[in-house]
Design a protein that fits this description.
Blueprint: E1 7-8, E2 13-18, E3 24-30, H1 40-47, E4 68-71, E5 73-74, E6 77-78, E7 83-88, H2 95-100, H3 110-117, H4 135-150, E8 154-162, E9 165-166, H5 173-179, H6 190-205, E10 212-219, H7 233-242, E11 247-252, H8 263-266, E12 270-273, E13 276-279, E14 287-288, E15 291-292, E16 297-303, E17 313-317, E18 322-326, H9 337-358
Antiparallel strand pairs: 1-2, 2-3, 3-7, 4-7, 5-6, 8-9, 8-10, 10-16, 11-16, 12-13, 14-15, 17-18
Helix pairs in contact: 1-4, 4-9, 7-9
The chain binds flavin mononucleotide.
């Protein structure tokens, strides 16, 4: 079997390995500059954000996920060599998947993966197509975010919609930092967060699931990051976000609404504030011509409702070539959004570090820390 798409990036290259029910899930990061202070605790802190405190709104699979760094650091600092970091899979129950192996779950990757890889496909827990693989994004994202922090760049993701409940406030950076992880659904609008939780529990009770939208804002990106034509910053961020399982739409700034605006409404006028050139609005979402504009990058990712639901659905028994019915068992998230928030944040941070290295904003060896 060849799953030929395991690496991404040009200068900050990450390679994800592992399967949902294999021995471990991890990532090799090649291209992290030497001289970044990095401990297992730095990565653990980000990994812990994946699991919301309310067990009822996520899958019953609760891995402890103790992060190990196997290579690439010495005396608490990165050496410039590849960093390998992983977590072990311990809470694996594969029985339900043996029963379903010939009946692909509607909405999941089972059917195309079976046709492409035949009997070599590791279907247990969704194999390489499981949301579990995104722990690799979060581990690499932890390193990327720490690196960006040295250059004043902050990446923050948060939920703005779940089910049909929409956040009502446009949060400030301070509110996002303070409130997002105080709520189980990772929404800085505390009032709507409660309603979002209820929407998830209602769907779960009905044997169903709900989707939503994650927004991500990045502050203090220098002007001119990105490599047009084909490695534009927005194109690479969008690609990385579409690589997160269950992401079905990506938009920047005004996004799809721009189609309904006039040029005079959509353009972001330039002004000088405190001696700096800024724009009065940010419909561009911080990117023009594939280059960062210096305004905050604002991007949204739409997550579909979790495909594995216990409600009865139609499928085909591939071993008999007969139509049949399926009720998906096993441990599943009734909504992917809360767990996806740190994943989206990581995906954006990984692309930004890669591009800041490419454009020379981050040197290959960091100075003056040790
Ligand atoms: C963090 C995360 C958790 C997920 N949890 C589940 C889950 O519990 N059950 C499920 O069926 N899909 C889950 N998914 C989604 C599937 O992995 C995804 O829908 C599937 O691989 C098909 O890919 P696509 O939706 O991008 O087309 C999860 C995705 C993410 C990012």
């Amino acid at each position: 079997m060849l799953l030929d798409g395991n690496s991404v990036g040009k200068k900050f290259v990450i390679t994800c390995f592992g399967e949902s029910h294999g021995r471990c899930v991890g990532v090799v990061i090649d291209g992290c500059p030497a001289g970044l202070s990095l401990s297992e605790q730095d990565i653990q802190k980000e990994m812990d954000k994946r699991i919301p405190p309310k067990p009822e709104i996520v899958s019953a699979r609760r891995e402890k996920d103790i992060v190990e760094i196997l290579s690439g650091t010495f005396d608490g600092f990165t050496t410039g060599a590849p960093i390998c970091t992983l977590v072990w899979n311990r809470e694996v129950i594969s029985g339900e998947y043996d029963l379903m192996k010939d009946t692909p779950r509607p909405g999941h990757a089972d059917y195309p993966a079976r046709i492409r890889y035949g009997s070599f496909n590791d279907y247990r827990g969704g194999g390489r197509f499981s949301g579990r693989i995104t722990v690799a994004f979060v581990m690499a994202g932890a390193v990327a975010k720490k690196l960006l922090g040295l250059f004043g760049v902050e990446v923050l993701a948060y939920t703005i919609e779940i089910g049909k409940v929409k956040a009502q406030i446009m949060p400030t950076f301070e509110e996002i930092r303070k409130n997002t992880y105080e709520t189980a659904v990772r929404c800085p609008d505390m009032k709507c967060a409660k309603e979002m939780e209820e929407a998830i529990l209602k769907a779960k009770k009905e044997g169903d699931s709900v989707g939503g939208i994650v927004e991500c804002i990045v502050s203090k990106v220098p002007v001119g990051v990105g490599e047009p034509l084909f490695d534009s910053l927005d194109a690479d961020i969008a690609k990385m976000l579409f690589d997160v399982p269950a992401v079905k739409g990506v938009e920047f700034g005004a996004g799809f609404k721009a189609a309904r605006l006039k040029g005079s409404e959509n353009n972001d006028p330039y002004v000088i504030q405190n001696g700096k050139i800024v724009t009065l609005t940010n419909n561009a979402g911080g990117i023009l011509g594939g280059l960062s504009s210096g305004m905050p990058i604002l991007v949204r990712a739409t997550m579909k409702p979790t495909p594995s639901i216990s409600k009865e659905q139609e499928t085909v028994d591939l071993s008999k070539m007969e139509e049949t019915l399926i009720r998906v068992k096993g441990r599943h998230d009734p909504c992917i959004v809360p767990k996806a928030v740190p994943v989206i944040e990581s995906a954006v941070a990984i692309v930004l570090v890669d591009h800041m290295l490419r454009a020379g904003f981050i040197p290959k060896v960091l100075g003056g820390q040790k």
